[in-house]
Every structure is written in C-alpha cells, then in structure tokens.
Amino acid sequence: MNPSLARAQLLLEQSRYDLAERELQNTLTADPDHALAHALLAVCHLQREKFEDATREAKTALGLEPDLPYAAYVLGLVLYRRRRFDEALQAVEEALSLDPSNTAFHALLSQIHLDERRWPQALEAAERGLEIDAEDVGCNNLRAAALLKLGRRAEAGATIDGTLARDPQDATSHAMQGWALLHSGDPRKAMEHFRESLRLNPESDWAKAGIVEALKARNIVYGLMLRYFLFMARMSGRVQWAIILGGYFGNQLLRRLAEANPRWAPWIWPIVTAYVVFCLMTWISYPMFNLFLRLHPFGKYALSADQKRGANWIGACVFLALVSLVAWLGFQVPLAHLGAMTFGFLLMPLSGTLSCHEGWPRRLMAVYTAFLFATMLAALLVILFWTGAQSQGVSLVDHLLQVFIWGALLSGFAANALGRIQPTR
Length: 425
Prior knowledge:
Blueprint lengths: L2 H11 L3 H14 L4 H13 L3 H14 L4 H13 L3 H14 L4 H13 L3 H14 L4 H13 L3 H14 L4 H13 L3 H14 L4 H13 L2 H14 L3 H24 L4 H30 L4 H4 L2 H27 L4 H20 L4 H26 L4 H30 L6
C-alpha cells in the first residue's frame, strides 16, 4: 500500500483530518486516479464541513471505480450529511448491492430512514446489519433508536443494556441510554448517561442536547411538555398534523357548543382555556426554558451557541414586555400597553423562528416575525402622526392590530410546517 495512503487512514482513525488531507494530496499527486484516495479525501472534507469539496471528491471516486463499494458508501454519507436524503438513499443502496455484508452500509441506511421518520424501515435496516454482526455498536444503537420511535421501550432498553455491557466506553450508547430514560420519564438517571457520554466524547452534540432536555425536564411543567414533544416525535408527519388540526377544530367546536348552550359553558370553557394555554406552551416552552438555563449556573454551559442566542432574544422580548407592562400599569405611560402587547405576542412567532432549522426555513420565519413587528410599528406611527380623519385613523389601527394578533396566533402553524423542513447544505 502507498505509505502516504496508509498514514492518511491512520490519521483518519485519530480524527486528525487536516493532516490526513495532506497525506491524501500526496497520494493523489503521485496517482491522480486513485479512487480510494479520493473517497478518503471526501471524508476529510466532510468532517471539516466542506460539503461541495466532499461531494466532488466522492463523485470522482465513484466515477473512477464504479464497482468500489466504499466509494458509493462515502457518496451516500456525504449526501446524507447534506440532507439530500433521496440521493443518499440511492447511493447507499448501490453500496449495499456491491457489498451487502458491510454493517456500516446497513447502519447508514437505517440512519437515513430514521431521519425521514420511516421507523419500521430503519429497524429493518439495523437488524439486517445485526444479522451480519450481532455486536455491531452502530446497528445496535440504531435498532434501539427505531424501537423507541415505535414505542417499544422495553426492547430498546434491552438492546442498549446489551450494547453497554459489551462496550461500556461507547459514548453514543450512553447518549442513546440517556434518551431512552428521558422517554421513560427519568431525567435524573438520564443525566448520568449524558454526562458519561460527554466525558467519553466532549464533542457529542446528541449528549449536549440530552443534558439540556434532562435539566429542563426536572421542572414539572417542562417535564410534561417534554413527554408531549417526545410523543409527537414518534409520530409520522401526517399523524402530527392530524393531531394538531384535530385539536384546533375540536376546540373550535367546543367554543361554539359553549356559546350555544350557556348551561354547559361553565364546564366547557375551562377545557377550551386549558387547550389554549397548552398550545401557547408548546410554542414558547422550549426557548423559554432555554432562557432559564441561560441563567442557570451549570445549565448555561450545556446550551449550544445557537440556543444561547435564542435565549438572549427571548430574554430581551420578555424584558421589554415586562418593562412596558410596568410603565403602563405602574406609571400610566401613554401607549405603553402597546409595547406590552407587542413584545408579549411576539414571543410566539419568535419562538417559532428559533424552532426552525438554520437556513431558509428560519430566515422565512424570521421575515414573518419581522413583518408582524413592522405591523405594530406602523400602528404606533399612525397613532402618533396620523393627520387625516380620526375615524379613518382608528379604522387603520384596528386593521393593523387584527393583522398582528391573528398573525401571532397563527405563527404556531407556520412554525410547525417550516420546522419539519431540513434544508440541504
């Protein structure tokens, strides 16, 4: 084997991607058509998030040697990381057709199905890998993840326990166990596994996210919300929308029933109110509790940079709403009530913005939020500077307020739709 290529493979195992890239460039200088070197170089670029370069090298490797299973696998891996799931699926299936005995290929196939919410297919792919090697850590963890999504917690727990018994130093298995315990409603024990996962792999985003959720789940209110979020996460997109729309139209039906039957109203209105409060909590609980963690002496270290920025935005919005409310109620400052209403209602679309994936979905939701803020700003300017007929000014302000309030209330549906989209990279 080419000495530079051998050194590159060793450096890749040590996650020293910059040095591995140099050795691979040396290999390709001597042999520009070395397919394996191009495939390994694609892995280096991928780990450094140089997605265009990774895609180019992976396609070059497969073009040079179409029968090289590893080249097809690397292309699938690159496309998966770029969230181009359909293309990634084709590539990994090509790799499996060339070498059906490689457990890593089955693991990638299972991971793609998991990300696409195809739980049975994800379980099937992981179990096919385990037929080849029953002790494969990746396939065992993916099997456990699929079982959790299918609601088969006992089987998932047994799978993870077996994986940890064979390899107690595997960071991913500890993170998987932590999430399984969160699904079972045991955040304290989950925290132990998340911490162990981070000790073994300080860069594990999955474990960091788990620590954040475990800390928040200790609060009884968020603990209940987390159970709902985990329940919804197990559902397919269609089922999620059926639950959301069913709740909305069911609540509307109850409202009409209460209005048409005053004797039933005392029993119905508490249900309607509880549903509205619950909806508000589903929209704002995640960033609001991130704000609490931002102020927590330990929790602030568990938040990612993006979560900290989101908590700062939510904190600023809450602060301005409270200041406006105090100015209005305590000091009778004119128009301060508009500030309290603006920043209070903006919590909903702002929370929705933060729940979207980075990229165009978040930018689009940010434009939606900015539009609502501009609507209230326009209403304020009309109140302060309108010089036309008073009735026309009042009517315009009323229309702007309605646009703002309804826009804020409907922002949850917009955020739910955009939040399911993972933009390609």
